[in-house]
RNA sequence: GCGGACGUGGCGGAAUGGUAGACGCUGCCGACUUAAAAUCGGCUUUCCGAAAGGAAGUGCGGGUUCAAGUCCCGCCGUCCGCACCA
């Protein structure tokens, strides 16, 4: 063996051998227990970044570990290939989105292979492959036939200058990112998936997801937002002219605060608002104003609360003489509840701001106790629950009881009813863009929207499109949309909207498991692999992607395509990769390769020698120029060092700060293991202490990998490596080295294979069984017990394991340090935790 | 604005309510070397002390407990998501 591990040569050698032997191709028919390990597939943006390296390294360690523990492993890779960046590239660089995307895929595939991931490349696909999106169109038709797809009006961000629909991220401070024009909200007829039909089911299903992080389940629960409340009608004292507008229907989750109401507010696009606008020009103007700005919730809710007093009065349901002003308000959403609310400024912060602005009464109607009924409401609303006060017949009732009582009376008197509502809205899937899956619908004047014939799938995107002007190229294509109606044969037009790319990523994991040519997937084969045992990706996907994938899985079950409800049995959300940022003194962002350490230790800009301000540690991003490209790192230090660093130190769920020192440390460790593997062999001899350490490490590393706590596995392996280095040559030490190689094989596979072969073993270490541990070697005969006085550490003692309580107490009390502190006073109390500590309370 | 998390040495972090700082990085000292690199050994929370030893200490302020980084309440700060970014 040579002195230094040649990472470049070893990486290449083993990657080639793995590929030649098709080692990581998954066999659906295998009799071994199956394990499906999946990382969120990447968007082919151009080059892989550190976040990808971290994500795929974690999954790779688990996949390789599962393989060594006797599983048939499915660990596939593909491309989430539709989306806006390809269209932006087309506009900026005059390249076709498809050409741009497939070039990026080719580059990134090579980069991933360079890292030596144990991936089954035979199952690779891109969502922009017509084969894939054709199957997706078939699934769309299934859902359409099952009544899970419908059409309705909904708002989009409209750029009035570019005459195009904008994504939320393209709206910056209420203006279009290219044109700079103030954005408007505009209504379009669009397609939706009826996800709300599964709202309860998606909520209940969270309860069974034991291997999901609680925080993600909680976020989904809040997103679905199931709440019980009261829906009721406020009579309007002056009918607005038409018979059906003599009442306004509101929904509230706090019916107990009904006596604290001081106004009624309706959405700007509420039918009543429309009716009022018809004869009040000021109202019409206000409604126009409300349409300014983007559609995102953050935009709407951080905007200043504004209202327009319609002059109408709503009659309080419990008191015919009590009238509330009716406002049109910019913060009430038509999509949630009934599009109308009553405002209780005492107990809702938004209502409080509104009431303060318009001089409306603020009355306390809930208090921590009846004694505090007259505590004034201060600068902020009091949103705690308690007992009802100043609320007539509700006075003294607990919040929950008061809610029930109001609902009971409303139902008895016939003006309202208890109702369950969800915050979750139906999933809008229409996108007015080219680079996505065409929605397989034909619009016919006589038949309406009709699904295309299945034998015509895939409905392909036309190649000859131009991106010279903004807007949807499908819509302006000269003949693509012209087609005869599949039902009546009359001339008709294709739907020119494409599907949200979240649809693409909502079933790709099924296609990985089974990919027949003639249908989306085979139910039996997919069932053999699904659900995914461990899914790994960024926490930024905690709600939308994961909820949509759960929905689609249920929908596919509903239409009989699949027989599981939950796609991902285990979920892990990993943190971001961050790096320091640097700015020149005049404010330009500088990349890590544009700076260096000056003679006096100050950071300076390489080209000018000018001063550099160290900025905060932030997520790697092009705009801050703090991106480190993984590939030069891999070329310089080897794939294993890069992988090892990604797993070291930082807990995987937290952010990882990239550092040069860190990668060098990892590379040093790779060399240490290599030297150890080539070190002098011993003849015979036991080494009990080393064996103990070894077997504890086997347990620790296995548990750490199963729990995805790779930083702990790394720490345990450092300890074991040091212990072996310090041990005298012996056969026990040689065995420990072979075991160490198997333990690091999932994390540093090239090093492990190279050293395994150099030590004379046959076959791939990737195929070697995971080491077994001997339980007898895990426990020591002696333990250290801590002796505390009043909870403070004063001494320690070595005792036999399993020592009796009274014996431990006696020993502790006889320690000189203890008696010195206690003096002549007998201890008041002694707490003994077996084998751990004695705490003496003086 | 709403929802969710996180906060421990110079740095990344470890710690079933039971020895705070494992392991790694950095730095310093030493060995090897003509020299350097590589490698190996030691030290590295702060304060007081020559040492032995002592005191303080897990964002801030309270609380529960024999015992709190860990549990509870209230703040502060940072990050993620908010439905057309992926």
From TrEMBL:
Domain Aminoacyl-tRNA synthetase class Ia: 423-580, 612-659
Domain Methionyl/Valyl/Leucyl/Isoleucyl-tRNA synthetase anticodon-binding: 687-802
GO cellular component: cytosol
Top-level lineage group: Bacteria
Keywords tagged on the record: Aminoacyl-tRNA synthetase, ATP-binding, Cytoplasm, Ligase, Nucleotide-binding, Protein biosynthesis
Residues of the signal peptide: none
UniProt main location, coarse: cytoplasm
Protein's UniProt keywords contain Cytoplasm: yes
PROSITE patterns (UniProt xref): AA_TRNA_LIGASE_I
Coiled coil: none
Molecular functions per Gene Ontology: aminoacyl-tRNA deacylase activity; ATP binding; leucine-tRNA ligase activity
Domain Methionyl/Leucyl tRNA synthetase: residue ranges: 39-171
Localization in the cell: Cytoplasm
Residue positions binding ATP: 622
Catalytic reactions of this protein: tRNA(Leu) + L-leucine + ATP = L-leucyl-tRNA(Leu) + AMP + diphosphate
Leucyl-tRNA synthetase editing domain segment(s): 221-410
EC number(s) per entry: 6.1.1.4
Motif ('HIGH' region) on chain: 42-52
Family matches, as CDD domains: Anticodon_Ia_Leu_BEm (cd07958), LeuRS_core (cd00812)
Short sequence motif 'KMSKS' region: positions: 619-623
UniProt family annotation: Belongs to the class-I aminoacyl-tRNA synthetase family.
Record NCBIfam families: leuS_bact
UniProt protein name: Leucine--tRNA ligase
The species this protein was found in: Sphingomicrobium lutaoense
Gene name of the encoded protein: leuS
């Amino acid at each position: 063996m040579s002195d230094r591990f040649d990472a470049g040569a070893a990486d290449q050698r083993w990657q080639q051998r793995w590929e030649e032997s098709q080692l990581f191709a998954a066999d659906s028919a295998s009799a071994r227990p199956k394990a499906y390990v999946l990382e969120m597939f990447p968007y082919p943006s151009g080059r892989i970044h550190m976040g990808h390296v971290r994500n795929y390294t974690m999954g790779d360690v688990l996949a390789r570990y599962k393989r060594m523990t006797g599983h048939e492993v499915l660990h596939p890779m593909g491309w989430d290939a539709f989306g806006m960046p390809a269209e932006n590239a087309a506009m900026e660089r005059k390249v076709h989105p498809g050409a741009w995307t497939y070039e990026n895929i080719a580059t990134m595939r090579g980069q991933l292979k360079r890292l030596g991931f144990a991936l089954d490349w035979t199952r690779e696909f891109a969502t922009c492959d017509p084969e894939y999106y054709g199957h997706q169109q078939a699934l769309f038709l299934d859902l359409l036939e099952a009544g899970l797809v419908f059409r309705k009006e909904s708002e989009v961000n409209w750029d009035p200058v570019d005459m195009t629909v904008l994504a939320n991220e393209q709206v910056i401070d209420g203006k279009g990112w290219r044109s700079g024009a103030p954005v408007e909200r505009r209504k379009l007829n669009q397609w939706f998936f009826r996800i709300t039909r599964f709202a309860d089911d998606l909520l209940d299903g969270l309860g069974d997801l034991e291997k999901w992080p609680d925080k993600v389940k909680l976020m989904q629960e809040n997103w679905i937002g199931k709440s019980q409340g009261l829906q009721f009608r406020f009579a309007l004292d002056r009918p607005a002219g038409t018979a059906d507008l003599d009442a306004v229907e509101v929904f509230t989750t706090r019916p107990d605060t009904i006596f604290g109401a001081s106004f009624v507010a309706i959405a700007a696009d509420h039918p009543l608002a429309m009716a009022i606008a018809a004869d009040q020009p000021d109202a019409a103007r206000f409604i126009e104003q409300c349409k300014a700005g983007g559609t995102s919730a953050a935009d709407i809710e951080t905007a200043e609360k504004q209202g327009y007093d319609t002059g109408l009065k709503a009659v309080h349901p419990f008191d015919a003489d009590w009238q509330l002003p009716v406002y049109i308000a910019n913060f009430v959403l038509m999509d949630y509840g009934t599009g109308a609310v009553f405002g209780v400024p005492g107990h809702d912060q938004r209502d409080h701001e509104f009431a303060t602005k318009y001089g409306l009464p603020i009355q306390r109607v809930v208090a921590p106790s009846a004694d505090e009924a007259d505590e004034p409401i201060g600068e902020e609303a009091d949103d705690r629950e308690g007992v009802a006060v100043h609320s007539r017949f509700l006075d003294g009732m607990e919040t929950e009881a008061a809610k029930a009582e109001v609902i009971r009376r409303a139902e008895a008197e016939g003006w309202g009813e208890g109702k369950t509502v969800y915050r979750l809205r139906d999933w809008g899937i229409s996108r007015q863009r080219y680079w996505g899956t065409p929605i397989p619908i034909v619009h016919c004047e006589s038949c309406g929207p009709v699904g295309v014939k299945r034998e015509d799938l895939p409905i392909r995107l036309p190649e000859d499109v131009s991106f010279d002007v903004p807007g949807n190229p499908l819509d302006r294509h000269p003949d693509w949309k012209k087609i005869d109606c599949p039902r009546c044969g009359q001339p008709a037009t294709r739907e020119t909207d494409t599907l949200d790319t979240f649809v693409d990523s909502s079933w790709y994991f099924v296609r990985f498991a089974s990919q027949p040519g003639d249908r989306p997937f085979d139910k039996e084969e997919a069932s053999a692999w699904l659900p995914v045992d461990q899914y790994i990706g960024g926490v930024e996907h905690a709600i939308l992607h994961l909820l949509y994938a759960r929905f689609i899985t249920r929908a596919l079950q509903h239409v009989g395509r699949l027989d599981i409800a939950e796609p991902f049995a285990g979920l892990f959300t990993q943190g971001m990769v961050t790096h320091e940022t640097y700015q020149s003194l005049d404010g330009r962002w500088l990349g890590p390769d544009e700076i260096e350490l000056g003679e006096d230790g100050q950071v300076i800009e390489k080209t000018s020698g000018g001063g550099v301000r160290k900025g905060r540690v932030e997520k790697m991003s092009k705009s801050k120029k703090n991106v480190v490209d993984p590939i030069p790192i891999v070329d310089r230090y080897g794939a294993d060092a890069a992988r090892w660093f990604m797993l070291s130190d930082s807990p995987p769920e937290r952010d990882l700060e990239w550092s040069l020192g860190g990668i060098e440390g990892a590379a040093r460790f790779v060399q240490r293991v290599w030297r150890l593997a080539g070190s002098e062999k011993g003849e015979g001899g036991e080494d009990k202490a080393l064996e103990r350490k070894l077997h504890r490490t086997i347990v620790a590393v296995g548990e750490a990998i199963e729990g995805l706590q790779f930083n702990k596995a790394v720490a345990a392996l450092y300890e074991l490596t040091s212990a072996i280095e310090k041990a005298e040559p012996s056969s026990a030490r040689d065995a420990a080295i072979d075991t160490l190689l198997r333990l690091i094989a999932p994390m540093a596979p090239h090093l492990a294979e190279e050293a395994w072969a150099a030590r004379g073993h046959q076959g791939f270490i990737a195929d070697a069984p995971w080491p077994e541990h001997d339980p007898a070697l895990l426990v020591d005969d002696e333990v250290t017990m801590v002796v505390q006085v009043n909870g403070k550490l004063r001494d320690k003692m070595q005792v036999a394991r399993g020592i009796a309580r009274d014996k431990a107490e006696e020993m502790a009390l006889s320690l000189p340090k203890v008696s010195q502190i206690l003096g002549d006073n007998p201890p008041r109390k002694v707490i003994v935790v077996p084998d751990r500590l004695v705490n003496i309370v003086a």
